[in-house]
Amino acid sequence: MRVTAGSGARSQWDDPKGLDALPLPLQSPESVTIPLVVAPGPRALEDMAFPFEALSDIAQIESWRKEINRPLYHIHKWWAQRLGTVFRAIVLGAFAPSGTDMLDLFYKPVRIKDAVVFDPFMGSGTTIGETAKLGARAIGRDINPVAHFLVRNALAVHDRPAILETYRAIERDVADQVRRYYSATLPDGREVDVLYYFWVKTVDCPACDTAVDLFSSYIFARHAYPKRYPEAKAVCPTCGAINEVRNDAREAHCGTCYATFDPQAGPANGQKASCPECSHIFPIAKTIRETGRPPEHRLYAKLVLMPEGSKAYMPATDEDRALYGEAQKALRNRKNPYPVAAIEPGYNTNQALGYNYRHWHEMFNERQLLCLSVLADRIRQIEDPILRELFTCLLSGTLEFNNMFASYKGEGTGAVRHMFAHHILKPERVPLEANLWGTPKSSGAFSTMFEGRIRRALDYADDPFEIRLPAPGRKGNEKVFGLSEKIGFPVAESYSAFAEGKRVYLSCGDSSATDLPDGVVDAIITDPPFFDNVHYSQLADFFHVWQRHILGANGHWQADTTRSEDEVQNADVGAFTDRLRAVWTEAYRVLNDDGILAFTYHHSRPEGWHAVLKALMEAGFGITAAHPIKSEMSVAMPKHQAREPIDLDIIIVCRKRTQLTPHRWNGDLWGTISPVAAEQVQRLRGSGRRLSRNDVRVIVMAQLLRQLSISHEMDAALSSLDNANGEIEALIAELHAAGSKEISTNAERD
């Protein structure tokens, strides 16, 4: 449902703290906005009553379809893309005075004029976009060139007619050339588009040299909701025919060769495979490594789009294999068709290296490389640099879905499971090759991603909206328009250009050393990386080498890799702490004395909390507030695989310790922390949110850090933190058990 700010009943916003008291506008919201005058003193983000539970409910809705509800930050893949709802609230709360009704303010057309917000870890640009929507000025910096590239494309001024015309020109010039490699002939002679090709990795049996298909199950296509739709497709291991079976069937009879087989049991079982020819059992990864080359693949099936619009699964034919051979030949005849860059060892790349993938281009088959090459060459010819970069960003984004590490999700959902679903470069044993140009019924294709990412982002930039939960008794969430400024700015490339009046300044580099003068920032709002989680640069290189291939090895694309010795993310906790402290020290320098540093964070390990506390206190910051809030993950694979998944972030609010009143504390550390943590847990549960043990942990740890940072000197604070493990675990167990008991009691009552 679409609503506009100011529609409906008239209401009054009265603020006792000095904000302009204005009625909700009944005329066009673009002409009437509410200025938020920033004044010294406590801020709403530091209030205990900050409505994190209600904001989490709104953020929850956004999190299910982030690419639709905040498309501007999803024109290209980035990791840990934080929720716009959360960061809008943080920006507002960092400037609104204490006592402000934050939920009321959230849905007002507020403008924070002349304030400057800095994000030193800008990632996908959520802070920058939400700041700009509220009328403030934004500075974003990231050490990774891919992040800098995507944010610059998202926030730039775009000429919509020129973008559409450029897309149509690309379509006229190369679409048919790409489409021909994704076509098939039906038995009756009609030609159809192939939506997806299905491949399986093969490895030669060490005992008899038979090529063994690495199927763990012969069922290759099932519905996303198998209990409701139990029909599935299985490939016959004897003749290769496609058979319809039940998703849970243990016996199937091939309708073509009449062989009987167990569709659940393929040759691959865990880390080992059994040769169907000689029954020899062998380790898969070790056998592949010993070949010295990436594994081979066999094409066994396809999904075609029938002329009347239905879809049909069919076995691969000699015609399909001949067409693939044509693509191989065409690729060999192209000059410099793809980037040749080595994959460097690392936590997130070692699994691919273990399967002998040594270069990034080896993650694609030759048809994919050919079609990507055709598109890359055409994009390189675009004269306007802004358009050339935008379409490079689009092609770079399609890489995520068009490679031999992608897989099939099945019917009833987006068909392609992208290669980063596991946050590592995990070789896929049954990869899916999508139609790279695409059809209206395709997923992850160049054409569909233009519609689903670029055009959707342009629409949002022209008319941003917020999500509002339905009123009691009503169904469906509302999209509230008219609250924010249109997005699209000439981006400054230096602070001097920004100082002359530009609204947005983006830079790529180490955030511990910036060109910002002392004290020019009013708030620093960010989401720092973790020390032991996904190493963004190791994965971002997958995109970087193609961006460099199209745009040239200059500027931020001079190096083969985005990895840097200066990046904060590091597997070593000591190095992570030192580098985070260096960024916070620079933040301290550029932040004015009345400014706030606010960032989102969570961690399940003590070292993660120790590192944050030490880095903050060494830089001169104390924590004034900590609020739990919905994190970005709702459908991520790692969350579903975790035994105690973390669904919450903590908004950690800091000020310079020199500006804090000395804290009076009676020495009862846990008596101070426990009531606050218990109240936050109860508020979240009272809103209907179930908390894992690790969710409770992040609440307890954040409150402990808050107390220690303002009542202890650094050495004493760190010592107390390190020695508090027993009390921490006891409090977590107590708070978590109370919630489990409450859930059990409610279930019995129901």
Describe the protein:
The chain is α/β, with parallel strands linked by helices. It is globular, with a radius of gyration of 28 Å. The protein folds into 2 domains: about 1-155 and about 470-535 and about 570-660, Vaccinia Virus protein VP39 (Rossmann fold, 3-Layer(aba) Sandwich); about 160-215 and about 265-445, no CATH class. The strands form 8 sheets. An 8-stranded mixed β-sheet has the order 24-25-5-4-26-27-29-28, sandwiched between helices. It is built from 22 helices and 29 strands. The model is unreliable at about 5-30, about 635-640 and about 745-750 (pLDDT under 50). This is site-specific DNA-methyltransferase (adenine-specific). It catalyses: a 2'-deoxyadenosine in DNA + S-adenosyl-L-methionine = an N(6)-methyl-2'-deoxyadenosine in DNA + S-adenosyl-L-homocysteine + H(+).
CATH class of the largest domain: Alpha Beta
- What fraction, in percent, of the residue positions are helical? 25-40%
How many domains make up the 3D coordinates?
2
| CATH-defined superfamily of the largest domain | Vaccinia Virus protein VP39
Low-confidence region ranges: 7-30, 634-642, 743-750
Strand order in space, largest sheet: 24-25-5-4-26-27-29-28
Radius of gyration (CA) equals 28 Å
The CATH topology name of the largest domain reads: Rossmann fold
- Secondary structure category: alpha/beta
Estimate what percentage of residues fall within beta strands: 15-25%
Oligomeric status: single chain
How many strand segments? 29
The overall pLDDT average reads 90
Biggest beta-sheet profile:
8 strands, mixed
Q: Choose one word for the global shape.
A: globular
Number of helices in the DSSP assignment: 22
Organism: Minwuia thermotolerans
Coiled coil: 714-741
Catalytic activity: a 2'-deoxyadenosine in DNA + S-adenosyl-L-methionine = an N(6)-methyl-2'-deoxyadenosine in DNA + S-adenosyl-L-homocysteine + H(+)
Domain DNA methylase N-4/N-6: 113-145
